[in-house]
Amino acid sequence: MERLKDGFVLKERYRLRRRIASGGMGAVWEANDELLHRPVAIKIMHPHTASEQVFARRFRDEAQYAAKLRSSNIVNVYDYGEDHGLAFLVMELVTGKTIAQLIATRGPLEPEFVRSVVIQVASALAEAHEWGIIHRDVKPSNILVTASGEAKLSDFGIARAVQGEPLTQHGEVLGTPQYLSPEQATGQPASPASDLYALGVVAHEMLTSVKPFDGATPVAIALAHVNEPPPPLPSSVPSDLAELVSRCLSKDPRLRPASADAVIQDLQPNTGGLRMVPVPPLPDRRPPAPPLTPASPTTGRQPLAPDLVNPRRTQQVLAVAATLLVVVLCLAALFL
Which residue ranges traverse the bilayer (predicted)? Predict the structure, then answer.
């Protein structure tokens, strides 16, 4: 991948400009389509994975799955090709931030912003599920949001058609541990309800800025999904939103919303269509100015302020597994 740099041209058409991100299967570049004169994003598969049949098949599947879908809340796929020994996927370039970046810089997000994002991601999932496609990796880093509040679901790299040929080996579970459904963790196949569970985890994390299920190892995280209840949401979260998140996080898939469309119906205001909520501004992290204390009447000096004691706060253990990478968990016999 060392040859990939600013100015490198793929298929005599796509000129690379700068690398945006890098993951386990490849890297994403901002590029220019010199035929249609528009900016695009290009995911280029790492050469060492291109030679591995399963990874190459998943990469092609991502192109085919995403190309079928027609939703303003899914990142559009324009083209797929191979050139210079590299397989690549040409996509819509979305100017914005991922939900993961927003949580990292802003902390808990406003409930009405969360409501808007959840409705839009549910709309994307409804389109995918209508085509019989399960995303299987709904997480904050796969949700892009523009400044105006438009949310787009990306990365169908480990998506699977419900009736499609399985690409996993016996005993493998694909997904990111913090967003893995209990049924997947116990060796059952993923279903549309699994995507709704992951959406519930994302919504909970947006409202609190903390992953509801975490642990020191992927296995510990998976067991938490199976056995532990999610932490309570702040009392400031509207009751309908809190109830929806709770139902999405039900351990039993049958107790979750019946479909992605049902999620939209539960959260959509009765007054009309979706009201997109702009991305919240960055919080002011400057320390507050110290209060003015009147001078001592006898000495004219400012009295000394008492020592301030910061209360201890407990913190959840950070997960070892990186959320930007697709990980393989060998938890139980699974044949997807």
Answer: 317-335
